[in-house]
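stuck on this chain:
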Amino acid sequence: MRWRLKAFLVLFIGAIVVPFFFPSVSYAVDYSITGVQIDAYLQENGDVAVTEKHTYAFDGKFNGITREIVPKNGTKIMKLKATENGKSLRVEKEEDLYKIHRKGKEETITVEIAYTIKNGVDVYADVAEFYWPFFDDRNESSYDKMNIIIHPPKETKDVIAFGYDTAFDKEEMLADGSVLFQLGEVPSGENGDIRVAYNAALFPGATITADKMMKEEILGAKKKLYEQAVADMKMREKLSKIALFIIPIFSALLLITIIQMIIRERMKKLGVEQAIQQAFFIPDEKLSLPATILFIKGTSYQPGEAMSAALLDLVRRGYVVKMEDNRFQLVKRSGGLLKHEQVLVDFLFNEIGTGDEFTFDNLRTYMMKKKNHEKFQTQTLKWQQAIRQEIKGKKLYDQNAGTRLFLLIAGLLLFPFLFLFPIYDLFGWFTAALILAVTYFVLAASYITKSWDGWMIVKEWRFLEKGLPKLSLKEWEDLTNDEQMRGFIYGIGMKDEGIIEKNKEFVQSFKHPLEHVHNHGDALNMQTMLLIGPYASTHFHSAYKTSQSTTSSSSSSSTGGGVGGGGGGSGAF
């Protein structure tokens, strides 16, 4: 049963450590191997004459079958021939793979393969042993029913026989000294070495492999195999009892922990909601607007709209002036710019623009060159990373160190069972333990929640999203020009049509007649914002999508074996 550890390790590491996919074997031919009968006739000279009958059920067209026979060290496969109902079939050899040509469509066929294993029997002073893998873990096909019969040169009663892995405890002694291994269903990727020993006197013409006594060693190997099987069974029963205890406990602990996590977050959000005043207001700038948008938007963040909002915010704060013909002039290069604002200014004005000016014609010209697309993506990521640094510095997340440490320790306590359960065929308990362990590890790695201040920022701006579209003109007039622009810029960055349309409605109300407006300059500033906001969003969004599509399109040996390195398998083509 120990061989399963190797296979499990590969599976487990692939599933847990990295989300990658193993290349899967795809068959051009749809078939099943419904029956395999192998007769191995041991010869007095130490060779083995083998006859195999393989029954294939094909669904669709096919060109033939394959049989891989990898000889053990010191042996050789000779004189392989294939027939069907006595008719010879063409055999093509590629190293240890034999392609047997037989075209057809939706048929069930039986192909007989005959060959000789040169020096297949190891002869010692007291016994002669046939120790052979007719298939191994390299086999890509399953056998629905497999029988293997080992025939001695002469009738005898003195036989030692046993098998490993799928052949374990499947031997049956026949009257003439032959040994039948009734393997039944054999899944792909399995090992199943067989081992049969007879008196050495039955092989007078064979070359002595080693002049030593081997019978006791072979019997010892058989005894050890069965002792290990008993020990494995006892361990399996012990692990089953342990699983009945630990799986419910760890499940209950996980459920309780998750409920506590949910309650804590709900209480925190409820407290924040109760602390927020009910009258409409534009939130204070606890974060810059680009950082606020990224913090609230999260994974649905749209860089094109966010970049437009960032440019408008530079206009609002007086670092950039909107000129005629949709030109933007940089009037301040330092003195109060945040790191991400400096990154954006350098990119828009120095890289894309002419130094002190930036236009959307500059942006279109820049994006016409494919070599600039990757640079656009790189600078956008650099800008976003600088925004995240601002967010990180505000301590808007709770790390929940105590809970995460508990989750990590719980997952580690389950870890040994992820190896033990599959080794001892407890795959049901393994599945349960795996789900629990993965859940514990994922929560331990990801359980970082918004702090009180973080939820306060989210709830205040979400309150604005709901309240601004319902705002009356009088209430909007009472807001300062800066508040009006911050609310509108937030709507641009969030791509909130309700905020954008409501601001449009407010601004249009000032057009006729202007003399009724208390602060004409404010209305004109907002009217400028209203005109350039959607226009800027369209251009930045288009540039980002163009760069994204270009960069996306541009990036886009067998081990194992049975005893002595031998083995093989079956297939079709």
User: Anything to note?
Assistant: The CA atoms of residues 261 and 403 lie 9 Å apart. The chain has 15 helices and 21 strands.
